[in-house]
Amino acid sequence: GCIKSFHELTEDLRHFLKLVSIHENHRPIVLFGHSLGGLISLHYIEEVERRGGVLPSGFILSNPMLKLAVEVPGWKKAASGFLSKFLPRLTLSTALDYSLLSRDPTVQENLKTDKLSHRRMSGRFYTEILHAMKSVDENKDLIRVPLLMLIGGSDQVIDPNVSSKFVDEMEWECREKKIYPDLYHELINDI
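-> structure tokens emitted (191 positions)
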């Protein structure tokens, strides 16, 4: 994938929630976000008071991208800043091992053939993700929406300990986490 700014993603969510709210006659909305979608959801909630938008009644996150557990090769980390600035649309392979996502071979195969599953990422997208992770962590006190976080304790893609700690450190009282010790990243699609 390729983006200019992480705000492109939160703006898409802002517009989508507005359309859903209108379509559903302003009934309560519960937002669900998985992995990158979880990070987008958190970033949106963090900035909704400042930038405006529909505030969901609550949200459910499944292994939100708060810290990567997979090791990004050093050369990619080093190159990401340069690529972000000078070649922002150049994408590199994520080299993600699908067996880390789910133990279900059917899910793994479906992910390999899914045209919407990104296997490439630009340096700009990577650096924007890092900035969004930092912003969400530093501003978690701005998140004042009921939250249920589902955490796969055996997730090898996103660090489950960071997700657990994030919920523990939130000031908002209306929050809960459920840890499923044996489940992988795709905890809803795991065996």
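The longest strand covers residues 147-152.
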